[in-house]
Structures are given as structure tokens and as C-alpha cells.
Amino acid sequence: MNIFNQTGRYFALMLRVFSKPERHSLYLRQTFNEIENLGVNSVGIVAVISIFMGGIMTLQVAYNMVNPLLPNTLIGLGNRDSLILEFSSTIMGLIMAGKIGSNITSEIGSMKVTEQIDSLEIMGVNSASYLILPKIIAVVLMFPLLYILSVFFGILGGLIVGPAVGAVTAPDYLNGIQSSFNPYYVTFSLIKCLVFGFLISSISAFFGYTVEGGAFDVGTASTRAVVNTNIMILVWDLILTQLLL
Amino acid sequence: MIEIKNIYKSFENKEVIKNISKVFNQGETNLIIGRSGSGKTVLLKSIVGLHEIDKGQILYDNRDFTSMGLKLRKKLRQEMGMVFQGGALFDSLTVEENVRFPLDMFSELSNAEKQKQVDFCLERVNITDANKLYPSEISGGMQKRVAIARSIVLNPKYLFCDEPNSGLDPETSMVIDELIHSITVDLKITTIINTHDMNSVMEIGDNILFISDGEMVWEGNRKEILYSENKKLQEFVFANKQYQRIRDDKINQ
Hints:
The complex is a heterodimer of chains A (245) and B (253). Chain A has nine helices and no strands. In chain A, α3 (43-64) packs antiparallel against α4, α6 crosses α7 and α8 packs antiparallel against α9. Chain A is mainly alpha-helical. Chain A is elongated, with a radius of gyration of 21 Å. Chain B starts with a strand and ends with a helix. Chain B has helices at residues 40-48, 70-77, 95-106, 111-124, 140-152, 170-187, 198-204, 222-225, 231-237, 241-252, and strands at 2-11, 14-24, 29-33, 55-60, 63-64, 80-83, 158-162, 190-195, 207-212, 215-220. In chain B, the strands form two sheets. Chain B has a six-stranded mixed sheet with strand order 6-7-8-3-9-10, sandwiched between helices. Chain B has a four-stranded antiparallel sheet with strand order 2-1-4-5, with helices on one face. Chain A binds chain B through residues 22-23, 26, 110-111, 114-116, 118-119, 121-126, and chain B through 45, 48, 50, 73-78, 80-82, 84-86, 88-91, 101-102, 104-106, 160.
């Protein structure tokens, strides 16, 4: 019963979130703030994780290529397609659920327990829309860009690590990442990113907005938000892969 | 004027507010007093619509708040200001931005006019040199004063304060009390304050409602409160022996 109750409350909250804003200019300013806070400030961690992810993927593909008949260019190709199809979208989504998601839950949750949300309501402001809508727009807009950056840094990571440890030569790797490229893979992953961006921001905001109690409960809500977002990302990854690939 | 009629509110089958009726007058400091857990905050939050009441009626100058749709309620709320127990200032905004927020959201004033109104409200609460500071950088008393400034920036008709003195030293409490009282009288607004601070009751209590276990037990003013023979009220008021001595002295005189 609890899951139906939670789902109902989530959709009720989303109805409030997507209602007409009181003052467009304030919402726009808030959206730019969130783009900086949630999107631009995530570029560093996305770059670091992607470089390591690409490097490790390159090594693992290389160590598993025991058949001498297979060309070494497959190492670059394998790394590129893994990043484009799954790692830079889904794995990055799971990581962003931890970074951005917990940030959103704890920020909104803290505002709830310190009566800042009540204060907005008393002023006649639709607090759900004012606080959540800019975050959803920011994350949905920024996540595809972070995905593209992740693919770039992942491929770069492979290029740095592969030749450095002798797993693949740089020309073979570069040939590999340019061969048999299917642009639809990128389209498919960008669609996933839009969906994941919405899931990360809306589910985290829901858990923050509905928190009751004090600091301890905000912490618990953050954990629940990350766990639930991760599960929903994986479920939707499965659904979208089945539907779109 | 705010009138509440036969209000009931319960949470999960536990009745927290039971059949309370009261008229809160314009231009007076109306107090809701009672022990911690007596239902004061629930009553105040019910009056402003943060809790939906189960039964009863709430009238703002004869406008029925309980039967209003969301749009009308939002409009009416622009006539309200509220000071929360912890101040409830927005952490991410400076003092000035906090006070300016309702103007940015709802008024059509020019930037210069908005700034003038913000400066006027901050001066009204005696804050002149903290405009660019964040709430975490100012004291609890200052936070309460900024919250008062924010609550009056749109010239409200109704002001609500939930335990405005909690966590403050006696001197700052007195400053806050006097500030709220003078704003109420000067701007002729209807003010309702939740408190269990007897000093506030004796200083500014024009119209007092005492509740216990969610029920209305007594109503009157600060002159009458010391001489009431209501047992529950006496236990509340004379928990502080000082007031017992004041009453005894006055009786002896």
C-alpha cells in the first residue's frame, strides 16, 4: 500500500510543480542558479570519473582480447560504444543521483524542517513549483551535456591509459574509436539522459519536499531518495533499451 | 478582524483542536497562550491555512477562508505576513534579498521603489548595517527582526507570529514584543501571536485566548489575567512565582 501511496503523492506533487509560475523572471533567475549549482559544478567530478572509467574499460577490453585474430582497433571501439551506450548515461546517472540527488533532497528537506517552505506558502507562493521546477529544468538540460562531456573524457581516458601501459597503441586506439560508428547510439543515450535527468531531480525533490521531522529525517530522506532514484534509473534503462534499441 | 468559529482539527484520529471560537480584533495584539503541546501552533497554522481544519469556519474580514478556492486563498495570503518560530529566513539570500523577496514576487514597483520599501522596513525593525549579510551571519534576535521586516514589506492586513520570543534573551524579547505591538497599532493590522512567555502576555496582551489540551479555557486581557479564578489558567500563569507576588501585592494595596 505504501508504494501506491508514495506514487500518488509523487504525481500530486508533480501536478503542483508544473502549474503556472507566479513570476516568470524569478523562475528564470532561479533556473540559471540551478544550472550553475547542479550542472556546471558537476563538470569536474564527471570529468574525473569518466577519465578513470574510460581508462579502466580500455584495460579490461584489452586483457579480455585473448584471440590473436581480433584486431586491436576493437579495444577503442569497445570502449567508445560502452561509454556511449551505457557508461556515460546509466552509470553517470547513478553517480549523479548520489551527487545531485542528495543535494536536492537535503536542500529542500532542510527548507521544509526549518519552515522556509511554510513561509513561501504563507506569502502565496506555490512553493513546490518555485523550488522544484527550476531544478528539474536545470538537470534535464544539463544531463545530456554532462553525458557528452563524459563520453569525451572517457575516450580521452582510454587514449591516455591504453598506450601508457602498453595495452594498445595510440594509432590502433584512434582507428578503433572512428570505426563502425552508429550515430543512433548517441540519440538513444541522449533520450535516456533526458529521462534520467527528470527522474533524478523529481524523485529527489519529492523526498525532500515530503520530509517530516528534523535533521536526522533529512539524512534518511536523502538516502531513500538516492536508493529509489537508482532503482528507477535501472528500471527505465531496461524499458528504454527494450523500446528504442 | 479575524473570526474563527467552532474549529476542530485532528491528526490520525487524535483531536488536537476542539471547538474553538474567537474574534481577533484589528489594531490589537491578540495572543494565543498555553503550555507547550497545548495546540497553539496547530491552531495558528489552521488559521492561516497551513493545516486544513476538519470542521468550523475562518473569516478574514467576513471573507470565508475555509470555502475559498486555491486562487482566492493565494490572493488573500498576499495580505498576510507570518513570523515563524525559527525566523524561517531563506538561507541562500541576504538580509536585504529576504525582505525584498515578496516584493519581487508580487509587486509591480520599480527597483528603486522596492529598494525604498526594503530600507524602510529594515529601518522600522532597527536593522541598518546588516543588509548584505546572510541569515547565518546574524544573531537569533536579528533574524527575528528581519523576519518581521519581511512579513510587513507588502503592508499586510494580518500578521501572525509563532512564538517570536523563543530562544531569545529577556531584553531582546522585550524589543521584539514592543516592535510587534507598535507595528500592529501604527499599521492598524490584525496581529495574532502564539506564546507561552508571560512577560509578553503582561506587556502586550490586548486580547488573550488561553487554550489547554486543544480547548479554549479562558479569554480576556492582560489586566484580567492575574485575577482570573480559572484553575488551569492560574496553574499556567502562577508557575512563575513572580506573578503570584505581583497579584498578591496588588490585592494588598
